[in-house]
Specification:
Blueprint: H1 4-13, H2 16-25, E1 30-31, H3 32-39, H4 43-55, E2 59-64, E3 67-72, H5 74-89, H6 95-113, H7 127-138, E4 147-148, H8 149-156, H9 163-172, E5 176-179, E6 182-185
Helix pairs in contact: 1-4, 3-4, 6-7, 8-9
Length: about 200
Amino acid sequence: MQLDKLVAYHKALGDPTRLRMLMLLSEGEASGQELAERLNLSQPTITHHAAKLRQASLLNERREKNTVYFSINQYFIENNALATQQFIFRKKEEGEEMEDKNDSLKESVLRNFLTKDGHLKQIPAQLKKKLIVLEYMVSKLEPGHKYAEREINEFIKPIHEDYATLRRELIMHQFMYRENEEYELNPREMWTDWRVLK
């Protein structure tokens, strides 16, 4: 279980230089040289802080010839902030009625999108339904176990032939994280929760 990913997010934000970098990048993409000039810092210092932000998935980078350009990863900044709030306050469901409604929706989505043998007929286009399917998939994985990419592919293939898309979706919605070519389940508090979507 990787609660340390949530901690890494806050550690990455716990530095004034990194916060200033993110504020500048919220205005748009910038090269390392531009950031160094605007913040009056050396290029190696920018590279160091960018690496910390990238490790916490708060920064994207692309290379063009010899220049590295950085951009903010707004999705993960917002998602980690929400995951932190939900983890700390452990928001409870608004009564049994809401729980029953969610259970009914979950059963309906799984019945409509999965065959009896567990094959996914199609990847749902609607985010809420997609998250229900992804949650169902990861419920069959073992928490704390590190999976090679090949193992994750083999796990997904019987469910749906487009294993690459589903593998990316699991990472994108924080059901899993990838490090050194290995995949592991995130704590449930970090998963994008379909129950809070309208």
